[in-house]
Write the structure tokens for this entry.
Amino acid sequence: MRVGIFDPYLDDIGGGERYMMSIAEYLSNIHHVVIFWDHRSDVKKIQEQFSLDLSRCKVEANIFSKSYGFLKRILETRKYDAIIILSDGSMPFVLSKKLYLHIQQPLSKMDDKSFKSKLKLSRVSKIFFNSEYSRSFVNAGIAQKGVVLYPPVPLNAKAMKKENIILHVGRFRARNLGTTDYKKQDFMVATFKKMVDRGFKDWKFVLAVGVHDEDKENFNRVQEAAKGYPIEFLINMNNKKLWEVYSKAKLYWHASGFGEDLKAHPEYAEHFGISTVEAMGARAVPVVINTGGQKEIVQNGKNGFLWDTTDELMEKTKTLTKDNKLWEKMSNEAAIRAKIFSKERFCKELDKIIL
């Protein structure tokens, strides 16, 4: 089978790119897979960042770029048995035998009512979402064509001694210049500082953060605010070193969506939460916000804690730092829970959708 894969964000490495390239990696074992992208170096970066093997995939001209003629694109898509696209809210018209869309975020404005959209939707074989959270915001006509296919999360924890580390992993990106960042690293730094000022000691807060050049100025403000406290920033780490940090950490924090109007902007919450699963796989107990995809991962009180307020975040964190038996129990449960989101499970479910 000849399969074409397109992700419009391959130059901005994130969870969606890991998701799409994991599909490419798996399908290339038995199918001819083409990645539509003009810059091979971007694909290589993703391969290295996420330890993927894309050597069997071909990287060819991006037929979905604006510079590629519409008629030429349509004719090119006829060569494919299946095309898989990460949708940014649009539904491109193609002539491949099958068309699959992946939706990785709330797209409440995605049209399924107009004649043109209905025609395009009729060509879609299946839509797969990265979470129930993402699925819950699309219109009914789109949702009924969809299934939830949770992202694959390879677990590469190492046998290392646990340390008194609270970890956070995520990209830094200021939503607007001079305002808060969308992963809420500034909020978490402020919260940890507040805990220390109130007597919390013998613990360190470590933020493993991906930072692009355009965000460095805003990120520097977060670093400045952390000075004088046991807070460490690890910037743009590779996957191997990141897993060493996961393996040392006892707790994991995540706060995307805190303080936001999620009815107006559901996209500000975490759409799934790959880093939360990774942390759990390394036996770091998650203490994460009670919204978005986090609620589908963490079973509150069993393999981690969910929180709604700053006080809850601080109190539930302190509870785990004071009660080692509770931490050990939740730590073991977290590792068990993480296995549900394995790469093997992902591939088996993908087979059911694609074939």
About this structure: The chain has two domains: 2-149, 165-340. The chain has a mean pLDDT of 93.
